[in-house]
From TrEMBL:
Domain Tail specific protease residues, every copy: 177-393
SUPFAM superfamilies attached to this UniProt entry: ClpP/crotonase (SSF52096), PDZ domain-like (SSF50156)
Gene3D superfamilies membership: 2-enoyl-CoA Hydratase, Chain A, domain 1, 2.30.42.10, 3.30.750.170
Source species: Flavobacterium soyae
Name of the protein described by the UniProt record: S41 family peptidase
InterPro entries tied to this protein: ClpP/crotonase-like_dom_sf, PDZ_sf, Pept_S41_N, Tail-specific_protease
Lineage summary: Bacteria, Pseudomonadati, Bacteroidota, Flavobacteriia, Flavobacteriales
Signal peptide: none
SMART domains the record matches: TSPc
Listed transmembrane segments: none
Length: 450
């Protein structure tokens, strides 16, 4: 009887132990829409897809705000990955370009300090209120720019929904003139036009093309544009990517197919290297094109290739992502001459991961770095930027010309190189000022199709 009772008690203890283990080790469920519910999902997605997933050791504090929690999962070197909620605008990356439609840099000139308008998007709040490349900002929200405050003012500008600016124009002929006050309200700016022209210099026809962004569906635009440039028999090409922060890989592939001489559809264009889950993926020119561009064929793009064997690319600190991909991945197939300043340094790509557990409600979207990028010769690792072949600071002089003007510093540098003119650009008379904050005008994610 004792043995029987002992056996029953032992079995009961064993059963209770099993129940206890099951309740401890089983999946934990969280209340929907709670921080824990969102962050647990974030953690699992990052452990699967993130390039540096092995560096994520544990879940950490799931009670944190999701935006802050996501940051705890990132490698210190990763400044590109981000998370946003489509119904919470404050979670999206903030920049002057996506809020107001312009880019700015800062200079010292004749003992005073200015913000220089460098790039203005078409049909943006900035453009619609009269902002132009080359104007100087003297005051922001009533505060005069000075050495001790320009950096903080820039950071404050990126966080505002309204800007009150005082501006003044400058030319070598007139000096300072036309002071104006402008009030900008945050607004939307949509796809930007690609501009191009033909420059004739000493019987040489040079195509100049400015591409502001790499959008899905641009292959048809490239086709039409380069058919026209080919029809007028250009023999040199200047590609302006200094304010192109990136975009879609298939769009960049479409342009590369047109530019590179003597390539075949099966030639290797790009190498993706991911974690142990994603592995490595190689894509030919044709495969990269078809990943997101369906309206134009490889052969049609090749037929619009002009008679060029090299390309001059104007670049700078806002040249990033897909623009850097163009520079790096064309090098195995043609001469690439970069002119300007060091590029931003974004050598990773990924795809958006949406929380679609509740189809009736939009959830968080992750944009993690998933792949490192390399060209056909396995050249890459430009996370600190690509150094230009010819270094030129576009802010050499206080007069800043419109893009495409032959007197504009970087374009003039390209034309001089093409013509063999060794005359140097005029000595700098302005001092460029650094910014401590990392620009968020760059596309945080170079997009690929999963």
């Amino acid at each position: 009887m004792k043995n029987c009772l002992h056996s029953k008690l032992s079995f009961l203890f064993f059963a209770l132990s099993l129940i206890s283990c099951e309740s401890t080790d089983g999946p934990i469920t969280y209340k929907e829409n709670s921080n824990e519910y969102v962050n647990d999902w974030m953690y699992n997605q990052m452990k699967r897809y993130y390039l540096w997933n092995n560096a994520i050791k544990n879940q950490g504090n799931l009670a944190l705000n999701p935006k802050e929690y996501f940051k705890t999962l990132l490698q210190s070197e990763d400044i590109y990955s981000y998370a946003l909620h489509p119904e919470k605008p404050e979670t999206a990356p903030q920049s002057l370009r996506n809020k107001f439609g312009f880019d700015v840099s800062f200079i010292a000139f004749e003992g005073k300090y200015y913000g220089v308008i460098l790039y203005v998007l078409e049909d943006s709040p900035a453009k619609n209120n009269g902002l132009q490349r080359g104007q100087f900002i003297t005051h922001v929200d009533g505060t005069e720019l000075k050495l001790e405050n320009y950096d903080k003012l820039y950071t404050a500008m990126t966080a505002e929904t309204q800007l009150d600016l005082k501006l003044i124009s400058y030319s070598a002929q007139l000096g300072f003139s036309n002071p104006v006050s402008v009030s900008l309200l945050r607004g939307f700016t949509f796809s930007q036009p690609i501009t191009y022209q033909v420059i004739e210099d000493k019987n040489t026809k040079i195509g100049y093309v400015n591409i502001p962004h790499f959008d899905v569906g641009q292959a048809q635009l490239y086709l039409q544009l380069f058919q026209e440039l080919k029809s007028v028999s250009i023999t040199e090409l200047v590609l302006d990517l200094r304010y192109n922060g990136g975009g879609d890989i298939s769009s960049a592939a479409a342009l590369s197919i047109i530019l590179a001489p003597n390539i075949k559809a099966e030639d290797l264009f790009i190498k993706f290297e991911g974690n142990q889950n994603g592995g490595n993926v190689d894509q030919s020119f044709a495969e990269a094109l078809k990943s997101n561009e369906f309206s134009v064929s490889f052969d049609a793009l090749r037929n619009s290739h002009p008679s060029i064997n090299k390309v001059y690319i104007l670049c700078g600190k806002c040249t990033a992502s897909a623009s850097e991909l163009i520079i790096n991945n064309l090098k195995p197939y043609m001469e690439v001459i970069t002119i300007g300043e060091k590029t931003f340094g974004k050598d990773v790509a990924g795809f958006p991961i949406a929380d679609d557990r509740n189809p009736a409600k939009r959830g968080w979207v992750l944009y993690p770095s998933i792949y490192k990028l390399f060209n056909a010769r396995h050249e890459g690792n430009y996370s600190k930027g690509i150094n230009p072949e010819i270094y030129l600071n576009e802010l050499q002089q206080p007069e800043v010309y419109l893009l495409g003007n032959r007197s504009e510093t970087l374009l003039q540098g390209a034309l001089n190189n093409i013509s063999g003119n060794t005359n140097k650009i005029k000595t700098e008379t302005v001092q460029s000022l650094p910014l401590s904050a990392i620009s968020t005008d760059i596309d945080p994610l170079l997009q690929i199709t999963p």
